[in-house]
């Protein structure tokens, strides 16, 4: 029997497997599709909550811990796997903020670099922005990375670890619970057993827990994005050099000149179909920030499912009423942002180490569900969860 079994091969699941294996444990990692191809792939790669001053303090603590790790983490992955996640710290421009004074006060309180720029300084940084701006806020420390490449690098790293057994295209049908303790899972590829089971299934986590009669408020929230292919630029400057945020939508530059625009927020269940309405809306937002994008080809339009949770606060810790069952899910829009801290916090608990942060704000509450005995029976055909 392996020490740990992780359900979900996104950034959260792969980082967890990496840390547990490096600590000397044997790990099974199960993924319903291909690792890193769900929300971890579909996002934009900004290594910060979009408006960090609007989030509860527990999220800010996770984000602050994670932010300082990505430079080292991505450099290590690039060196060991040959896949560069393209982490760049070029800063973020906020335009037309309604709560600018609140943002500045938040930054002053936590000693975060954030300053007011006049229009001249804004256009000096990004000459191609739409005319008529009267200035903005500047966060110079913000970083971004190419999240599909982060997923590829993590997958490559996990595959080199002798303690990790990775199974892709392996759909979890149900959790096996005996005498109040989880003993493993039943999957499309057979039964797997482990001493501890960790749910990192993103938007699908709540559905899997429901098979045990446990209600946890993690739901799918659809987000759609697009990428523009800009013309080849001679010299050192691309059309866009840094992340720009305006009216709840953002533009993210890639090292090769491509520009991403995102994203929508839709309650559409598990439907990931891109829509013409979202395409038009994203296009309008992109051109309203960088007008020259109207001349560019839309290279790709896609969607993904975020694991929504109340206040965007993830659930990290033991599931009440089922010994050996743990969760790390519900990160909403900030799974990549919070991943280094969220995974380290759970691994600290699993290995009995001093946690990096107080784990109490993230623990699933006892009142959020205790499994019914009948729920442990095999589900009806077609009830696959992950």
TrEMBL record:
Keyword Oxidoreductase: yes
Keyword annotations: Oxidoreductase, Thiamine biosynthesis
Pathway entry: Cofactor biosynthesis; thiamine diphosphate biosynthesis
InterPro entries in the cross-refs: FAD-dep_OxRdtase, FAD/NAD-bd_sf, Gly_oxidase_ThiO
Location of the region described as Disordered in the Swiss-Prot/TrEMBL record: 362-386
One Pfam family it belongs to: DAO
Keyword Mitochondrion: no
Domain FAD dependent oxidoreductase: residue ranges: 3-348
Entry's EC annotation: 1.4.3.19
Domain of life: Bacteria
GO terms assigned for molecular function: glycine oxidase activity
PANTHER family: GLYCINE OXIDASE (PTHR13847:SF289), SARCOSINE DEHYDROGENASE-RELATED (PTHR13847)
Protein name: Glycine oxidase ThiO
Species, as recorded: Billgrantia bachuensis
